[in-house]
User: Fold this.
Amino acid sequence: MNTTPLPPRLQSIVEEFQDAEGREKLDLLLEYAESLPPLPDWLAGQHSTMDQVHECMSPVFVYAERRDERMQFYFDAPPEAPTVRGYAALMAEGLNGCTPDEVMAVPGDFFNAMGLQQVISFQRIKGISAILAHMKRLVVQTLE
Assistant:
């Protein structure tokens, strides 16, 4: 088991899912999906400037910027794909405001502790791993 500490907000989200049981995990994921903020005006309709997460079954786009040594991520995912939209929302909430090093230190399997594998297919769970991988790649690009 990985002992790398998660950023506090992401750790809180993991604990929230750990405390939920069965269907509650899905409901919680749907709440996150509904909370995904729209893209800012300057990024809306600009998918060509965003990174697409091709591993996801639904079109997911992410954009990252570094502000005062803190990361800010913006996601666009269709409302009709609530699982992946929920992943995007919880990743943004959990990692926005983190330093590049904090984002890079998040273990690729951190989500296993959330227990989503009990209620969601393996294929869908791979989406959260793919989103994290793209976020890390964007962090590296902001450092170049």
Observations:
- The first strand starts at residue 51 and ends at 52.
- The chain has five helices and three strands.
